[in-house]
Amino acid sequence: MRWRQVFAAATVAALVLAARPHAGAQARTWTVIAGGLTQDGSVWSNAFHPRVVDVTVGDVVEWQFAGFHNVAFAGGGQLPPLVVEEGKAMYLNPEVAFPVGAAEYDGQGYRNSGVPPEDPRAWPRFRYRLRFPKPGTYVYSCIVHGPAMSGVVRVHPQGTRLPRDPAAVLQQGLQEQRATLRAGERALARLRPELPASGHVRVVMVGDAKGGYSLMRFTRSPLVVRRGTTVTWEVQDPFEIHTVTFVGREKVPAFVIPQPQPSGPPKLLLNPRVAAPTPQKTYAGGGYANSGILVPLGAPGPRSYSLRFTRSGTYTYWCPIHALVGMKGVVVVR
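Request: output the structure for the sequence above.
Response:
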């Protein structure tokens, strides 16, 4: 994918918007960047840039998306869950996946941006705008990535002298985004499989709440093991869900399957072939083996998955959730 073009389009659009003139007490538009990613998709920012933005009454904040995120204000209530169940099926919650609420926010009522398309090439075109008519401090979150990804809009009375203008705030956000991605790249350079015991290897899926990044790679190079080795994959990331999915000769399955409805938006089924684990504990190649969803730090559910490799060969595996940004690994069994 052309990550350079994705970033260029997002940055140019943001700079043009921030440079629009304003006069006196005229309402202004402030830009916050939701996320970010490196050109090869190996590192994601799971943060809002800047995390805190100061505006005045009547101003508009526009979130520009550089990742698969949403912007949600609880409005004094509880944020809805990301996933809802219907019988044995799991769906993305439409209260998260699609926009909810009016285009202004005064601290009352749920507001939600919805999520962008899965294809990263569409992210720079995805926008969310809210006008703020009342002074206050308003906290918002990305439900997709949990409370560790949150931001704040501080709304001041009209006439308040703010420390930065919209163009300077945008530059601050871009600088924060670059710093976050650089921190993730340094973490990726240190990424190594762990050897906790003879015949065992541990592969850690890494993220950092303070740093605001997640690594979208299992390993930096093929994992070479001896036949009979057990490999355990473990999520050590506060933001992301993952799977470990060996597909054999099959195509990588889609994670979300849209189900058209007679009216309104589609239902978004989480593909049970991806979401649910397969039962085998060993792998000899050629078949489908899957961890099911492995959850982030602090969330209820499984965070690790193990397979013992019983036949020599080279085996490619994927995280179908993040396949579009190239999250795959290779195990070489000798």
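The chain has two domains: 3-180, 191-333.
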